[in-house]
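User: Can you help me understand a structure? I only have the sequence.
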Amino acid sequence: MAHVAQWKKDEVKELKKLIDEYPVVGVVNIGSVPGRQIQTIRSSVRGEDTQIKMSRKRLMKLALKKSSKEGVLALSDHITGQAGLIFSKTNPFKIYSMLERNKTRAAAKANSIAPVDIMVSKGNTSFPPGPILSELQMGGIPAAIQGGKVAIKEDTLVVKAGEKISPATANALARLEIEPLEIKLELMAAFEEGTTYTPDILAVDADKIRSDIATAYQQAVNLSVNSAYLTKETAAIGITQAVSKARNL
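Assistant: Let's start by predicting it. Here is the structure, written out as tokens:
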């Protein structure tokens, strides 16, 4: 029998304990998130009765398999690439929303694909004339000397969404301290009380739902009053309108 390192046994034991202890367990994708941003996000969610644990895929799957929580093994199917486990005492919808709120900015990486259009705005910089002028120009940014400083001559789309970011452009953006990328931990799935929730279910627009409910309520009130089918909520409105009409006869 192959020898299993003690640290691996301890890791699985700790993960299993967390899986059994927390009512909600999820899988997060951490592949595109730099270490510094991961630590920032981990710190920000810790106060929300939530913690994130990174480990090897095989160890996470083994911990899920050993857990006494019925059905939680389904999360194994969502552990792909660079993943971690998230444990929380709040519901999956709040976890998804919390991770969405904890997006951070990051510098553009050379040879990576731009997920969005990357713009550089017209304006002055704090740089004096020097090598940076040619660095910006090589990066596709129209720079010139104005008033003794380097300035961007016009708003410029330097990289379109879906295009590769060249090393020269990545360097130019970094020199301008422009962090065009928005990165986050992606919640791939969350498990609670026997149900596995995926992002297509969790991506709820709370503001839109509140607006839809308010609109539906107002439409129901209008229907009730206009059809003279009064309820506890619309009786006062209906009586007021009836009195007003009677006085105008």
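Now, to help you interpret it: The chain is about 40% helix and 20% strand. The first strand starts at residue 24 and ends at 29. Let me know which part you'd like to focus on.
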